[in-house]
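Researcher: Go.
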Amino acid sequence: MTSIPKTIGEIRAATHAGDLTAEQSVAAALQRIHAFNGKLKAFVVVDGERAMADARHLDQLAAMGVPKGPLFGVPLAIKDIIDVAGLRTGGGSLTRKDAAVAQADAEVVTRLRNAGAVIMGKVATVEYAFGGWGSNETLGAPHNPWDMHQARVPGGSSSGSGVAVAAGLVPGALGSDTGGSIRLPSSFAGMVGLKTTAGLIPKTGVLPLSDILDTIGPMTRCVEDAAILFDVLTGQSVGASAPAKVEGKDAFRGKRIGVPVDLGVALHPDTAKVYQAAQERMKAAGATLVPVRFPTSLADYAAPCGMFLAVDSYRHYGPLAEEEPNRLGDPVRRRMLSGKPVTAVDYTKNLERREREKSVIAAVFEAVDTIVMPSTAMPAPVLGEHPEHDSPAVFTRFANYFDLAALSLPVGLSAMGLPIAVQFVVPGFAEARALDLGHRMERAQGGPIICPVLAQN
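Model: Structure:
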């Protein structure tokens, strides 16, 4: 008989009831990592010895009567742009192969440890977190677990985080989202990802991409787990952002769901079908669907957001992009170099446009609780057959550009059995609303949609 790896909520319940020790929880995660990571390549560093030592230490403290933290014994993975003390922050790049090990944890890692979490190691990323497909020309890409036979894009840039969570190697991971880097793998690899508001969660000890757009957020298998990690990362009491308990048949009663009139790009037929079905499901569960219009199509906001990424990445990593011979993968190098010719006038005009249209977006939220849109325009394509120099972030960058919060979760499957996701976009600092709506969606569809690999031992 197979058993699906426990969620964060299930681990919390078991450890606090005394039915599971931290050592047992971590040992189970290590066993699964060792069984699957050779194929999936999600983890780039497995810090198993320290993880087991940390777990035993937690159990010893608990035996002495020390209260168990809200993440007691929960094994987590950290995207490899975030510092973990004693490990090198590789940034997914050969340019950092000789970087010194981190001397201290990033603030977000400290918060996780203080809550009782056990850090299992570092997981793969696109070079310097600059790419939405999840491919990495220099170090290789993780294998999307939804197709164990053919390599498909895992989504980026938090590629390893998404694969590790979707396949149940760990119940949760940290990712970063600058233009969609949490939500894209959440879409392509079929799990839950929360893009938080810029400035809400500290970025101390995190390699930068765009200072004004970078955010850190949780990636999990279900919305309730994302809410638990979000509360820990923001320093709130766990439960502060817990979704409402609702029944599926009226999960959206009284909710006004904004539906964009102009997406700006054609959806894959399977994505269009699932997106429409998700709207109908919300309507059947009591929602009012409200058409919303923006000054331009959703896809038209991808390019101005991309300008910020290009300019800021060149500011941080220009010397690496300019060096010869070059050690960066060609796609990432080209993205960085595209920021070089952008003038200060153009950059300032883009900032002004952003501020000017923020009021238009804010007005939309006066009439609706959320804006629902696809997370990606298509299911995960075959790795190497995707347009690498075109971004899949046509819908996700909207939230980054206007400093909004957004939650992505799978709501259906393609004809080939690949996950298809929507995102609930909400005003900045309204993450609890997005989590609540995402949970309502899970209830309306009968539960989270999970990867079949979870049932394999």
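Model: The chain has one domain: 8-304+331-455.
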